[in-house]
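Revision sheet: structure tokens.
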Amino acid sequence: AQYPRAQPPLNCFRLLVSWLVFGQASHSAHRMPNTPSAASSATAAGPAEAQASSLRAVALLGVGRVSDQAVLAKHADRNTSSADLQGFDTAVAQLMQRASKFPAYPGWRDHQVVVGEYGGESGRLYALADSQALCVVFVAVRGARFPERMAFGLLQEFAEKVRMVQSETSLSEAMAGRLTGSLKGLMKDLMKDYSNPSKLDKVTLVHEKVDNIKGLMQDNVKKILETHVSLETLQTKSMVMSDSADKFLKQSVCLKRQVQMRNIRVKVVTAGCISAIGLYLLMPLLS
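Predicted:
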């Protein structure tokens, strides 16, 4: 009969726990973007993004002769590491070997994926034969998002300008590396012009915008999932606290009953003792 009267305090306790839990959850949800994990991830992503933005898309540009596979001129971006440069040089040698063995014809084109130092893709190498298949111009780009049509457009422009600057005799008789000085300015200008594909290609610009939006959406979904996990954890804790409150109330009711029964027993024993003493004192009078 006493246990139903204990339900109102239990309901009030549950309401109090729910208010505390969900109040804390909403407070933590508002503070979620400023948590140390988010700050540390943003800090960790900062140097990587800065380094990626400092690297140009075009890493290497050059021209080679098909007949003897000699590289007449080449220019590499100054931020290109020695390991990447070695990988690009190896890919250039392989492409020149294929062009000489095939042999290359006017307008012949080929490309090759360049493997980096740790086994991943560090870039791609594209090659194009000039109008007489005397030389092959090549370009190395970083990453796989550089449009192939832009790479071959760069090579077509480079091949035409090489033909305008150098005569057929110099291209046929020059030693390896002898044309680097005369073509260095031309190669640097082309590498600079094509290092930002989004400025020259609208499709690439749209792709970059889509990638940025995709990254923002992924960050938002990640934050929502983190908040959901926090709410589930808080809900679990609130259920545990509610169960503990139920057990505490049940134990308190049982303890109260035990105390009451003990008091009744003490009162009964006391009354019995007093009655016995009274009867003992009244026995002489009754006799």
